[in-house]
Amino acid sequence: MSNTNSTLTRRDFLKTSCAAAAFFTFTGHGMVRTVFGESLTTGLSDPALQPKFTVDAPNALDPVFIYQPQNGVYRVAVKESKHMTGLVNPKNGRPLITRIFGYGYDDNRGVSWPGRTFQIKSTSAGGDAKTHVRWSNGLNGKKHLLPVDTSLHWCYSLEGYEDYTIKKNGIPIVTHLHGGHTDFQFDGNPEFFYSPDGKVRGPQWNYVDGGFTTDFYYDNDVPAGNLWYHDHALGITRLNVYAGMAGFYFVRDEFDTGAADNPLGLPAFPYELAYAIQDRMFMENGELFYPAFPGDPFYDDFITGEGAELPPDVFRGGGPTALAEFFGDHIVVNGKIWPKAAVEPRHYRMHLLNGTDSRFLVVRFRPVPGGATSLEGAGAPMPFLVIGSDQGLASAATQTDTLVIEPGGRYDIVFDFAQVPSGTRVILENIGGDAPFGGDFGGDLDPDDFFADRQTDRIMAFDVDIPLSSVPDNFDPLAIDIYGGNNEAVTNTRRVALFEGSDEYGRLQPLLGVAEPSIDAQGDLVSGAIAWHSPATENPALGGTEIWEIYNATGDAHPVHLHLVKFEVLDRFEFTADLVEQPVQQHNGAVGEGFRLENIIVGAPVLPMAEYVENAPKDMVTALPGQMVRIKTTFDKPGRYVWHCHILSHEDHEMMRVLQVVPGA
In whole numbers, what is the pLDDT of the chain averaged over residues? Predict the structure, then answer.
């Protein structure tokens, strides 16, 4: 049996002489990187013993999987259910069942992982002005499927909510349409959570006209795009999404219609595919596993290895505690482990969503003989075209053979399976590591950055074994010239920053903040790292167009997401700064440790990297360590939104800030 239940073994503090940290001088510690070693945890599923490429990959754009409204309303519930991932008992080959939380119809048709797909017409294509969704929370069980750390700043730890518990009041949820152009009341703000009976609801519900409602409205005055929806409840987003609460939301317009006769010649169903790529750990009985206790993967490095001291009156037996990041050793695509798809020798359009907690995917397509289950002896990476990203089609099709996809990011690609002979299997490969991403991948990674007997190097397989049909294959990459960038005049430049600190227990705590002293919403001067609950510092004027300079003062990359808006990624620069230690107030009044930047000097521009394709409207941007990345966006709706790191374990432990769009500012 292979030893695959690997975990972090240490955290290395980077020295100023190291190339990755050369941009900083330190007062205090600061930037850290994580590397992997191995450790065997009993009771976990061994991914090396699970079948590869035997189950079919569901297509999230299959017409039978698309939600249909009832009298103009989409009625969607969250419930607990049983799910077949393709896991088997390696001793007898029998299928294993996994309990999940899924989205689905609010009737007896059940829920699924991922949730069914929304496919909506833009108003420019004759669609309704808004999509009306009535969400319902059916998670009224006495416990979560996963261990909940109640020491975090979460729904039931807010002031006035301390007497509520999951056992008594059920699991709080609130759904966020990621990439939606949405009024703030319906955006899925983490403090808009609500319990199954609706009697417990977050403190921001007093902003909703007419009181409590779970009827949400999403604007359709947007171009075609690949959005997605997922839970966003305060402090438990990582757990609810891990349990299965996510799904696709596609907008179609007059160009990208989704039909075979679309004017751009884009491949349409069944030649258009949508895949949510996630990673998980499982118990030997098929149940989801999430580390939170002593002896679990990652615990030693993020808790004892950080010198954290967890008081036993808060953490009985040492947990459950949130850990700084999570990397699963099983790859799951649309709820199935390492699935396969049969294809014709023609162009296929694929929408790829990185729905993981912490893992940056670096994907390639490589040919292997029919039936192969590994990349041993695989052919060279094959070219494909990137035609769009998070919120729409690109300014031009970009050919590459390697693509970085950040957590929360989506890419729209076209792959031509006519490149290989009939009978060939093409494996979608991942050359990103099983560790926090610093910008390196493939042969540039340390061996400790990979799981032992690594199975996460492969995602799914495509078998080119269907005869070519008579359906025309009219894809023309020159037709992709949709995105023109943001051409509005800039009204403000805002400088924000990413930090790592520690909470009151000494646990690693990633934080957002300001790169230079700024005035917050209460008129106070603040600097450096700031926790989620503190007054807003990002308060753009309604109608304003801003350039955000995002300075990454940590040792790892972070996928940064802004709600409400789409943005243009402009460029990147090296920078130097002094990193100075300062206290950070926690949600409970305790004090943790953070940093601020002083003496920032912006250096040379970073040349564009072929593996990062960003010539399309984005709502995610990868902020690489030691770099400042610039984005440009327009804020056209007022209200309370958020911006955050989309490593879910980070946003649940304070790497999230209020984004308050202010009329007349």
Answer: 93
